[in-house]
Amino acid sequence: MTKTALITGITGQDGSYLAEFLLNKGYVVHGVKRRASSFNTQRIDHIYQDPHAANPQLHLHYGDLTDTSNLTRIIQETQPDEVYNLGAQSHVAVSFESPEYTADVDAMGTLRLLEAIRFLGLEKTTRFYQASTSELYGLVQETPQRETTPFYPRSPYAVAKLYSYWITVNYREAYGMYACNGILFNHESPRRGETFVTRKITRGLANIAQGLEDCLYMGNIDALRDWGHAKDYVRMQWMMLQQDAAEDFVIATGQQFSVRDFITWSAAELGITLEFTGSGADEIATVAAITGDKAPALKVGDVIVRIDPRYFRPAEVETLLGDPSKAKERLGWEPEITAREMCAEMVAEDLRVAERHALLKAHGHDIPVSVENG
Ligand code: NDP
Ligand code: GDR
Questions:
Q1: How confident is the model at residue 371 (pLDDT cuts 50, 70, 90)?
Q2: What does the pLDDT look like over 142-160, one tens digit per residue?
Q3: Is the CB of 13 under 6 A from ligand 2?
Q4: Checking CA distances to 373, which of 24, 134, 180, 195 falls within 20 to 30 Å?
Q5: Is 149 left (phi over 0), alpha (psi -120 to 50) or beta?
């Protein structure tokens, strides 16, 4: 029997990979997309299906996690077997600037979905996945972090996600719903939003190598993260909804690297050897050697990374390292792509775009510079 899934956040990194994954499994996929004043479906344009065509498998609905009646109507119309709640204001630094909005979307949005499922009498038939996060561990109480590690959130984002974690557990216990949390550690890809640290680095350094930007301005490059690939992680999101009973799982690689490591790897993919000098807000990275032809705009001695304290956070999560043993033992899940391989894939993709832009620029065309940073 064909299954139906509803994905909030389908236009985001994970939503796009999950939609692809579920379509390949034969699902009918419904996605909630926000109304925007410009197109915001770039990540799913390649799987778009004309709604006028016979029997489309992918359907998009305008909606917003802040709008109860709209969410209820979409669930009523689509009668999903599985709901994946991936929609969120997902940027930790932004959550300090917009804490109330972040709480409305990331905490109340989850409650709105769960209540809609219950209100419509679907609590025994619709399975629910909540996109929980390693940010719940914040000021870590145990290393590595596992399902039983106490939480200590350190941002409005993480506090909002803490509510969602517990309301998901509560609906499971109170109403017997199949509702579960995936506690996902950082995961990235070429589709990662441009203001998250990995993508900011791969895109920034590719642009610098091609002469489109001069310098990358970073925050706390001592931060340590457990980075996986989004493709591996959406597979696990689906697996979590296919079990006999709902349970929560940590999804991580079990390996940890610093932001500085990620900068070093990205530079190496471009044939650049970096030398870091100074410390704290005065640290810089200088080009020490160049090999190959991927960085024609650079010469030895150029300073291409500096620290800008505006990217420091009011409260930082310094270190995260996950223990994915439960996912491995119970579900047989293991990540297939290493952080280093993922970095290479991201740099290659951003370099491809930067080379195209550099060529256009060389022929006198204006290249738009993004004003968004983060
Ligand atoms: P993205 O930021 O790439 O995507 C977020 C999605 O949510 C986008 O589709 C966005 O729409 C949508 N969205 C934002 N606000 C609203 C709203 N008010 N109503 C409806 N939809 C909204 O995040 P990721 O794909 O990286 O992450 C997916 C989920 O997993 C998020 O909940 C995130 O917090 C969580 N998570 C992510 C991790 C990661 O490392 N990537 C790790 C752990 C948890 P639009 O495209 O219009 O902006
Ligand atoms: P994070 O991801 O906050 O872990 O949340 P992000 O990539 O934004 O930051 C990771 C670490 O890098 C440090 N950092 C910088 N971060 C950004 N964005 N920009 C910078 O210039 C910069 N310099 C250093 C940060 O301080 C931080 O320590 C992500 C999101 O996807 C969440 O939605 C998700 O829940 C968690 O991962 C798990």
A1: low
A2: 999 999 999 999 999 999 9
A3: no
A4: 134
A5: beta
* 270 and 203 in a common domain: yes
Ligand nearest to the CA of 134: 2
Same domain flag for 25 and 135:
yes
pLDDT of 86 reads 98
Angle between helices 156-175 and 109-119 (to 10 degrees): 20
**Given this model, what pLDDT does residue 374 score?**
80
Does residue 126 share a domain with residue 166?
yes
Tell me the ipTM for this assembly.
0.99
Catalytic residue numbers read: 133, 135, 157
Q: Domain range holding 278?
A: 197-224+258-317+339-362
* Overall average pLDDT of the 174-194 stretch: 98
Does a structural domain hold residue 333?
A: no
> Which ligand 2 atom sits nearest the alpha carbon of residue 218?
21
Distance 195 CA to ligand 2 centre (A): 9
Q: Radius of gyration over alpha carbons of the chain, in Å?
A: 21
User: What residue owns the CA closest to ligand 2's atom 4?
Assistant: 186
Report the C-alpha gap between 329 and 134 in whole angstroms: 20
Nearest C-alpha to atom 44 of ligand 1 is from which residue? Answer: 133
Quick check: 262 and 197 in contact, CB under 8 A? yes
